[in-house]
Amino acid sequence: MQYIIKASKLEGVAPVPPSKSHTMRAILFASLAEGRSVVRNYLASPDTTAMISACCLLGAEIHIDADQLIILGTGGKLQVPQQIIDVGNSGQVLRFIGALAALIPADTIITGDESIQHNRPVLPLLDAVKQLGGFAEAINGDGHAPIRVRGPVAGGYAALNGEDSQPVSGLLIAAAFMRGTTELHVHNPGEKPWIDLTLDWFKRLGIRYSCNNYTHYKIEGKTQLAAFDYTVPSDFSSAAFPIVAALITHSTISLTNIDMQDIQGDKAIIPALKSLGANIIYDEQQKILTIKKSQKLEGGELNINDYVDAITILSVFGCFVNDPLKITGAAIAKHKESNRIESITRELNKMQGNALPREDGVLIRPKKLTGTLVESYYDHRVAMSLAVAGLASEGTTIVNNVECVAKSFANFAPVMQQLGADIQVAT
Of 142, 209, 132, which is closest to residue 176 (Cα–Cα)? Predict the structure, then answer.
């Protein structure tokens, strides 16, 4: 499937999808709780399907409706999965379920697609499970899935690299259900807002823990979770695409159901863009974010470790500002659905951009883009970023293999069309 895009002006009001990070945690915690939980306004995506499937294999019972999930939890008593768990393209399911598998006194085998098997490292998680007394291995010996994990672990001490937050979050969640107390020592902690998001769930559900500067954690085990009713808020990482689209096309749009009080770290892109001249106004009472035509968009330097998923769309933004934009703090972006540093710079340069990959980010010198045929690398954020670039480029931009957009923003094209974008979908 392809997107075919031409230069456009945008206007109007549109929603953005529910948060993927909140959806995934809501499903996981409801599956660990005792009784019947309801997750409303969940994100329907392949990652969500993978999490649901994995949790069902561990003993949860999940009923799927159009706008809510009804989840009958396990009460923390996970069953031995009767088949290999396939996480699809979800690194989050790989790391979270991989950690929970250490609670089970039998082998759990977890695999995924090509990206999971070759680009999503899992050694920090496996090493930590072994330190806690469990068995964990990368079956092919290459530090990637498929993995085999066997418990049960009862608590203890483990140290791990925390550049990628997902193994840390996974171990924190698993530790809450171990029989004893667990201490985690995290070296090089990164992506801290995603840890904050996990800890915010701990607070919401009454899970006892202590955290010292993201490097030392102590988690009391034997957690018993009560069922809950939760409504998933809108996703800031998805909102970034229409926000930047409006800015680079000198348009005015509004996005609804935006809660700036939510814990999501990706909301940091909004003050970051405002610091570079973006005219963005938030109505707290109505929860509406309005992006207005800006007089002058500046370059500068942004350390985006707190919102690293924005690297691709900020690289597009950098093509349309007055001065060079240096993006740093994003080394972990090389290990997402694609190597996002290489992917986005290569494709923007195909569009006659001037983007230079760096060890921990990108340097973009502003330059008018010209539409051409570009590749998504089967990465949803690369695909949407290039589509946004096409809205402010000369000629026609064609983005290949955009089915991956369903991972986080399945109705991206209709939402953008609603705002006036000239985006056609071809199969």
Answer: 209
Cα angle: 123, vertex 129, 131; to 5 degrees:
100
Say yes or no to pLDDT of 374 above 90.
Answer: yes
Q: Based on the domain organization, do 152 and 240 belong to the same domain?
A: no
| Structural domains of the chain, count | 2
Instruction: List the one residue out of 145, 237, 234 whose CA is nearest residue 191.
Output: 237
Q: Where are the beta strands (DSSP E) in 235-275?
A: 252-255
What percent of the chain stands above pLDDT 70? 100
156: helix, coil or strand? strand
Strand-by-strand arrangement of the 354-358 sheet: 300-303, 325-328, 361-365, 354-358
Tokens of 15: 């929603």
DSSP-derived pairing of the beta strands 108-111 and 147-150: antiparallel
Could you tell me the CATH number of the domain that includes residue 246?
3.65.10.10
Q: Is 422 a catalytic residue?
A: no
Query: Containing domain of residue 8, as a range?
Result: 2-17+234-426
For 16, phi and psi rounded to 5 degrees? -125, 160
Q: What is the 3-state secondary structure (H, E, C) of 102-152?
A: HHCCCCEEEECCHHHHHCCCCHHHHHHHHHCCCEEEECCCCCCCCEEEECC
List the beta strands (DSSP E) in 225-332. 229-231, 252-255, 279-283, 288-292, 300-303, 325-328
Catalytic residue chosen out of the listed positions 229, 309, 360, 422: 309
Angstrom distance (rounded) from CA 202 to CA 172: 9
The reply to whether 215 and 169 lie within a common domain is yes
Shared-domain flag, residues 191 and 92? yes
pTM, 2 dp: 0.94
Model confidence pLDDT, tens digit, residues 64-86: 998 999 999 999 999 999 999 99
Residue 201 backbone dihedrals phi, psi, to 5 degrees: -65, -40
**Mean pLDDT, all residues of the chain:** 97
